[in-house]
Automatic annotation (TrEMBL):
It comes from Bhargavaea changchunensis. It catalyses: L-proline + a quinone = (S)-1-pyrroline-5-carboxylate + a quinol + H(+). The keyword Cell cycle does not apply. Its cofactor is FAD. This is proline dehydrogenase.
């Protein structure tokens, strides 16, 4: 059991701490990995990336919405981002989570919200990527993707390598533009690989399959071992650079992002912005210990440490309570 990962995932799901994060804002230190809380701040960040030859996928942060009004507000915000991409001629596309648009409220309600977004993006030739979430939302999200793909060709999604079903999914969706990730949620043993070795092996397997058989592959990783493997693989199989891109998160490994761009590879930075940044931030820390090392000096301050301290107390209390019950 990876206690560190469990700890940060627990923090990401804590509504009390999420509410506190919204009140405190990016003063907590997350400004190094979140591109601001406003559209104007996000646009400025993307302009800087574009000037360096880097494209962006924009995530107007939000998830696990259980209220229709909140979901409708999220839809309007994403529609506004689409307009901004078009008006400012940004090299960017949209990433969104179905739960942000009401998947937990009502399936048909969420479908229509997403249809409106995809349709608006389609008018401007803007791609929309569905970020996959935990296992309970996986199949409904794929179902919505299938429905929208009947009418629109500007949609794609994410394949999470830790799921046993990932190989079947990547074969089914090989004609889609796909982002391949390892996975950032805590999933049960009967549905997902649990060890780093198993997840890494499946991750490489999925990347290679889609590079050989798919349309366009977004390889989302900060791991230079994976990146070097992909470089060698595409060279050996004569896969052109316009068939894939590397992706990293905003604020992570900036030097490597620039270096890969200078080497002639397509590069896209995942740019999150907005007030609902807390869950995203904690899952990045949960994904791999190296992420914590990459940003700890530039991210943590007194308020951040206070929140994590409160979360640690709750986490340990929960574990002690479970042990007492057994």
């Amino acid at each position: 059991m990876n206690v560190t990962k469990d700890f940060f995932i627990m923090l990401s799901q804590n509504r009390m701490l999420n509410g506190a994060a919204k009140r405190w804002g990016l003063k907590l230190g997350a400004q190094s990995v979140v591109a601001g809380t406003t559209v104007d701040e996000m646009v400025e960040s993307i302009r800087k990336l574009n000037a360096s030859g880097i494209s962006a996928t924009i995530d107007n942060l939000g998830e696990f919405v259980f209220d229709k009004e909140e979901a409708l507000q999220a839809k309007l915000q994403i529609l506004a981002v689409i307009e901004v991409i078009h008006q400012h001629n940004l090299d960017a596309h949209i990433s969104l989570k179905p739960t942000q648009l009401g998947l937990d409220v009502d399936y048909d309600f969420c479908l229509e919200n997403l249809r409106e977004i995809v349709s608006a993006a389609h008018e401007y030739g803007i791609f929309v990527n569905f970020d996959m979430e935990d296992h309970s939302h996986l199949q409904p999200s794929f179902d919505i993707l299938d429905e929208l793909h009947k009418d629109y060709d500007n949609v794609g999604t994410v394949i999470q390598a830790y799921f046993f079903r990932a190989e079947e999914d990547i074969q089914k969706y090989k004609d889609y533009r796909l982002r391949i990730v390892k996975g950032a949620y805590k999933e049960p043993e009967n549905l997902a690989y649990q060890t780093k070795e198993e997840i890494d092996a499946n991750y490489i397997k999925l990347i290679e399959y889609h590079l050989l058989n798919g349309t366009f592959t977004s390889i989302a990783t900060h791991d230079h071992h994976v990146i070097n493997h992909v470089k060698k693989f595409v060279k050996e199989h004569e896969i052109p650079n316009d068939k894939f891109e590397f992706q990293m998160l905003y604020g992570f490994r900036k030097d490597m992002q620039l270096q890969l761009t200078k080497e002639g590879y397509n590069f896209c930075t995942y740019v999150p912005f907005g007030v609902d940044w807390y869950g995203y931030f904690m899952r990045r820390l949960a994904e791999r210990p190296q992420n914590l090392n990459l940003i700890v000096k530039q991210t943590f301050n007194k308020k951040t440490n206070t929140m994590i301290g409160l979360g640690a107390g709750a986490f340990l209390l929960g574990r002690m309570t479970k042990k007492t019950k057994h």
